[in-house]
Amino acid sequence: MLMNVLGKKKIIIETNDFKICLDNNDKSCDFSFLSHAHSDHLFKSKKPVISSDATIELAKIRGYNFERLNNVPENISLIDNGHMLGSKALIINEDKESLVFTSDFSTRNRGFINGFKPIKCNKLIIESTFGNPFFLFPDYSSEMKRAKDFVEDNLKKDYLTVFMGYPLGKIQEIQHYFNDSNSSVHEKILPYNNAYENFGINLGTKKNIEDANILFSPLMRTNNNFFNKIKQVRGVKFGVFSGWNLNPSYKNRFLADEGFTISDHADFKDLLKVVHKSKASEIFVHHGSSKEFVEFLKMEGFNATNLD
Description:
The protein folds into 2 domains: 4-134 and 265-306, Metallo-beta-lactamase, Chain A (4-Layer Sandwich), CATH 3.60.15.10; 140-260, Rossmann fold (3-Layer(aba) Sandwich). It contains 7 helices and 16 strands. The protein has helices at residues 53-61, 140-156, 170-177, 190-198, 225-231, 268-278, 290-299; strands spanning 4-6, 11-14, 19-22, 31-33, 49-50, 76-80, 88-94, 97-101, 123-127, 160-165, 183-185, 214-218, 236-241, 258-260, 282-286, 304-306. The strands form 3 sheets. The chain has a 6-stranded mixed beta sheet with strand order 6-7-8-9-15-16, covered by helices on one side. Strands 1-2-3-4-5 form a 5-stranded mixed beta sheet, with no helix packed on it. The chain starts with a strand and ends with a strand.
């Protein structure tokens, strides 16, 4: 029997010997695969999971305690998918057929994160968060250089720079780039930072806010009480990091001064690259711009299915 991709919303793979849920839990599955610890991929489960050590640890911080699957089937393997610390793509081989589930991924090297390397397979299950031709990201190094210039310009005016991003994954990536700067961290980020440090990722020396040049913060509107207290004693400039910054209005949601287009997802061009290099005869697309991406793939002659 060839592997079957089952379900809408809940993605389930059926093989000769087992059923595995991908980033979800269902009573029909023998066990689950957990790709990473972002909240939209976590799930409650009494069944064991296949996952990385870092993902299990980060999920625990978020209140999810997973049992590890002790005897992982020999035809299952995990590889780095370039999304965040501990994130993995899943590969299943059976009956001379191979399936790859990317989960959230990026092909770009970013600091301590190595980008996902496309893999040849028969069936590819790929995310499409930015599966619209509008989303073409700028060069990573150039965009981070722009962020560095933003900090230096603020320092000349004795302003504190506040960099905001998703508190798990994105903000640690930015901290690592600025790890030689005098920086402080919002308390909600500290538990994740401690886990990163435990896995050997240097995020830089922590300072009190009054002694810092940069403050790393979760995403929030900049007119709240926390920031207003800082503004009473010091000038502040705000920058927000996200792939959504390609939309000029994104930074305005947070009343930020500047937006930097840094993403832990693949952009449209990189999504296409992974599809083409996979040589897959069947493409299954989920999340984000799945409808648009499937329509584009079909125009290019691919056998593509929308799982959303």
